[in-house]
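Section: Multi-chain targets

For targets with more than one molecule, the full set of components is provided together so that the structure can be written out for the assembly as a whole rather than chain by chain. Components appear in the order listed by the source. The example entry contains two components.
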Amino acid sequence: MRNKRNSPFALIPYYVWIALFVIAPIILVAYYSLLDLNGNFTIANYQNFFTGVYLKMTLSSFWYAFLITLFSLLVSYPAAYLITKTKHKQLWLILIIIPSWINLLLKTYAFIGIFGMSGPINSFLKTIGIPQQQILFTDFSFVFVAVYIFIPFMILPIFNSLDKLNPALIYAARDLGASRLTTFRRVILPLTMNGVKSGIQAVFIPALSLFMITRLIAGNRVITLGTAIEQQFLVTQNWGMGSTIAVFLILFMFIIMLFTGQKEKGATQYGKAK
Amino acid sequence: MKSLVRATVVILLVCGLLMYAASVMDQTSGKSGKDVLTIYNWGEYIDTDLIKQFEKETGIHVIYETFDSNEAMMTKIEQGGTSYDISMPSEYTIEQMKERDLLLPIDYKQIPNIKNIDPDFLDLDFDQDNKFSVPYFWGTVGIVYNTAILDGQNFDSWDDLWDPSLKGKVILVDSAREVLGVSLNSMGKSLNSTDSKELKAATDKLIKMAPNVKAIIGDEVTQLMVNGDASVALTWSGQAADMMFENEDLTYNVPNEGSNLWFDNMVIPKTSKNVEGAHKFINFMLDAEVAAQNADYVGYSTPNKAALKLMDPEVVNDERYYPSKEVRDNLHVYKNLGKEKIGEYNELFLKFKMSIR
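Its structure, encoded as tokens over all components, is:
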């Protein structure tokens, strides 16, 4: 590979790929967003977006995406930390990754059973004397299932950056009199921030456009931008409006990438999930 | 680098072997392109034993795929790249598909069994002379409820769904026309209303129902009702029949103000590659015995009057599944309202969904 290092031709497949599958679709989406139902140019879709319903939906999508990311982070950071301390790191990591190989819908359907009135959680509550709870179709169940689905995407980048962290730095901090908390706050956390940022990107962005589990688990009590896009394309067949929402989603993603962007090279893990 | 190459080679080898195995399996079951029939149907909407029987009788191999909404089905056919030979859209979708020239006319010389169909269900407004479609099943939209949990309620009126005692109990179906239809019917308005003021009023009324709504979902409702997780749901007659079969506490009622009457029909999409096989399949499904077995399995009402004679009289005489002609006159068939109005229905439905918090 040494001799080919600087060949400009090697990059051609990459450019073609980017042009065909990244740039062209974005242009198409932007173009469709300017069409009305009859294919005439209009900005009505954008005006429509700024009416109450879609703004409210954007806000609630952001709120749920924030909750999902927050809880994923709260679970994943300690989990990733503990995994780096175990003897069989790779084994534990695989155990966490394996569930993400199972189809998302299958896992979601399983949760319908688990959270049901006659499901295991409610039978457990009953045996310890707590009356049955409505768990399915609540905010709790929605956030819980989403967090469960996204955890691997958060753990991986954090694990990578924690694993790469030179332990000598931690010993040095401790030797120099830093408490455990200070070591964490001033040494470990800043040095693994890139992993955390990658994790946030890999979770927050897909969480904004979650659909399907909004219906199956939240019973449409939670409506995200993703749900709205799906509906516009498949049910209403208003491709223009669907594209307009998609344009805003893309904009939001760029903004988020800007905020969580990394200046130096770090572990970048862009996960993809529905 | 070496291990990368090795891994690539192994993966390619495995893929190649699997592809070879698949093609061998196809050959041993004797399938060539011509003898394949691709059916695109609603989920849980055919007795799969009948597909096997059809394959045995005709030697045609059936590929069976399902969809969960008329709109999704039509979008997929319209986009091309598919080769569906048979599909089962509802009446208003057939109007749309005709408009967009997505259907092939049906040749009745190849379908002698059409004589089994009750003339009441032929030559309807959405497809005069049944040029493009053959009735498959019909049914109503109504309320299924658990009599053990909701003692004393009978849902004779749509307004009963607004009853404060049902707080957090009502399950609705994730479909704009059905849900807005509840509200329109309860106000004595037409299900095919295109008057924006009426639609707005219907939505405002629906929003008052929001505290009662437990969830807005699709086919998953069956399991919830059967398990007693939910006590009342807006649903289609045949889905209700499935639930009632598994849980005896459930019953189904179509409120007196009227409701939707719908027909699903077999059609041959333009994309068909086996038109002859498609006709064979339609004729097969219209056979009295086949239709009776299918109706028994699926639970919706069959338009096949020869099949009705072969079915359990208890089912056939049950007004919940086979409402009398007088009751049917009070039910209305959806019309194709055009893209703009459907868009309006869906925007309003979205607004309603956003109000459930």
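The CA atoms of residues 130 and 183 of chain B lie 32 Å apart.
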